[in-house]
């Protein structure tokens, strides 16, 4: 049986309307026109009625531009990278030519971050987003990068300044992605996410927040070191359907146990996760909650499935 080959020049054939491109990429037609004026791409043709028609190559350029922007690359820099990557006479980018594995992407990102090459790290992350789904970026690239940097700091190979700069970079990118994935108020069940008292390591919880928002769950993200009494008051006022609590080390356990009674009568399931729970999953039951799961995508899948299945019953007033 013969197979049908792609016609020569197919990638340059104008075939998609602006609305079809918007449906494929999520980029509004107004933004496409702005990019066309400011950066010289995409390159739509006009049909007999004067409407823009975009080629598959245009769509590829738009997707690359969006991936760079999602990674936090400034728009002008993202446009320059996109044009360079898609130039017809340019060699394939080294990372694509080598077909990098997630581990190799992570190693490259680690190297850029420890060299304080933030522009290079941002550009590399843009390429990674163009190659991998968001949740693979979280679990197979960003998480191993953070673990490697933390281990190098523990071994005394880098300073705490290096570790803080790398963490700040990842935090900023996750914050940007969380905003992009934010679900509008009034749609989807609400979960409240916080780090336990004394817990300042919040990047894993940010990843979980992002993964949940991508599954249609609204998440009120409270951040690091949240007293359990305040967490309970907030969750009741917002009528949260679930509470997510992150503990990454023993340093957060004593204060959590001491104030666990503040969560009594919450009327919503308590999901616990983080490095400490991954090492000791039995702690979840000891603390009166449910183990969320070993990583952000799987935890999000478990939590979202329960929330979307549970009946929408309002809780009592605070």
UniProtKB/TrEMBL annotation:
Xref: Gene3D superfamilies: 1.10.1660.10, Cobalamin-binding domain, Methionine synthase domain
Ranges where the B12-binding domain occurs: 188-318
PROSITE patterns hit by this protein: B12_BINDING, HTH_MERR_2
Domain annotation HTH merR-type: ranges: 15-84
InterPro entries, alphabetized: Cbl-bd_cap (IPR003759), Cobalamin-bd (IPR006158), Cobalamin-bd_sf (IPR036724), DNA-bd_dom_put_sf (IPR009061), MerR-type_HTH_dom (IPR000551), MerR_fam (IPR047057), Meth_synthase_dom (IPR036594)
Gene Ontology MF term list: cobalamin binding; DNA binding; DNA-binding transcription factor activity; metal ion binding
Keywords: DNA-binding, Transcription, Transcription regulation
PANTHER family the UniProt entry points to: HTH-TYPE TRANSCRIPTIONAL REGULATOR MLRA-RELATED (PTHR30204:SF67), REDOX-CYCLING DRUG-SENSING TRANSCRIPTIONAL ACTIVATOR SOXR (PTHR30204)
Entry protein name: MerR family transcriptional regulator
């Amino acid at each position: 049986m013969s197979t049908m080959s792609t016609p020569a020049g197919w990638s340059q054939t104008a075939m998609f309307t602006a609305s079809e491109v918007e449906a494929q990429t999520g980029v509004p037609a107004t933004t496409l026109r702005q990019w066309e004026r400011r950066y010289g791409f995409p390159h739509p043709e006009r049909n007999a009625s004067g409407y823009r028609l975009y080629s598959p190559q245009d769509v590829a350029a738009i997707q690359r531009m969006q991936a760079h922007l999602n990674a936090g690359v400034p728009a002008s820099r993202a446009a320059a990278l996109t044009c360079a990557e898609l130039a017809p006479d340019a060699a394939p980018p080294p990372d694509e030519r080598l077909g990098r594995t997630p581990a190799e992407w992570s190693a490259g990102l680690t190297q850029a971050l420890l060299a304080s090459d933030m522009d290079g790290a941002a550009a590399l992350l843009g390429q990674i987003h163009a190659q991998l789904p968001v949740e693979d970026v979280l679990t197979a690239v960003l998480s191993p990068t953070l673990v490697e940097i933390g281990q190098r700091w523990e071994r005394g190979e880098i300073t705490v300044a290096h570790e803080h700069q790398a963490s700040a970079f990842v935090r900023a990118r996750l914050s940007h992605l969380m905003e992009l994935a934010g679900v509008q108020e009034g749609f989807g069940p609400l979960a409240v996410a916080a780090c336990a008292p004394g817990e300042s390591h919040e990047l894993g919880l940010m990843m979980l927040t992002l993964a949940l928002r991508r599954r249609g769950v609204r998440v009120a993200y409270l951040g690091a070191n949240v007293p359990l009494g305040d967490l309970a008051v907030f969750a009741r006022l917002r009528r949260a359907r679930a509470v997510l609590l992150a503990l990454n080390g023993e340093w957060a356990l004593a204060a959590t146990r001491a104030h666990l009674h503040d969560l009594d009568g919450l009327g919503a399931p308590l999901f616990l996760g983080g490095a400490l729970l991954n090492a000791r999953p039995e702690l979840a039951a000891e603390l009166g909650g449910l183990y969320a799961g070993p990583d952000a995508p799987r935890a999000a899948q478990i939590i979202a499935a329960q929330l979307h299945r549970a009946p929408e019953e309002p809780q009592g007033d605070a």
